[in-house]
Amino acid sequence: MYCRDCGEKLTLRFLENEGLVPYCDKCRKFKFPFFPVAVSMAVTNRAENKILLARHTGDDDYKLFAGYVKKGESAEKAIPRELKEETSLSAVKWKYLASRYHEAKDLLMLGFLVMAEEGEIVLNEEIDSVRWCTPDEARGLIRKNSTAEYFLGFALNELTRKK
Description:
By secondary structure, this protein is α+β, with helices and mostly antiparallel strands. It folds into 2 domains: 1-33, Ubiquitin Ligase Nedd4, Chain: W; 37-162, Nucleoside Triphosphate Pyrophosphohydrolase. Helix content is 22%, strand content 38%. It has 3 helices and 10 strands. The protein has helices at 75-87, 135-141, 147-162; strands at residues 11-15, 19-24, 29-30, 37-44, 51-56, 62-63, 65-68, 91-102, 107-116, 127-133. Strands 4, 5, 6, 7, 8, 9 and 10 form a 7-stranded mixed beta sheet that branches. It is globular. The model has no long low-confidence stretch (mean pLDDT 94).
């Protein structure tokens, strides 16, 4: 296998919670197999009046929760796994909303509205902080014209439609 960005031969390296993943020594990045798929999750509380946003380690922006779908895994299995890994919260139910190609990571994102069981949040090393927000606060915190904003719009429309 070769890096699709620079052509360097890839080696396999262990990545916490992912297993062996192709790695490019020249780019100094993990290179997930082409064509990766990930889930994007607009996480709500049971009352569906708050959205949980995450700020990833080393990033200033708040985003929706997201994670790669592992080989052999369905999106529906990735949702509760990723939410549990990143926050220790359990996904109660979820609904598919939309998909979008995410150019920054060269992958297909599948957007879901996810209801989480409320409880103590324990963050893993990927997440720096989380924040429960009203829909208006979430709109204000999410970076404009981002994939997160795109999926947040679908989620908020779904929540409004349900009322």
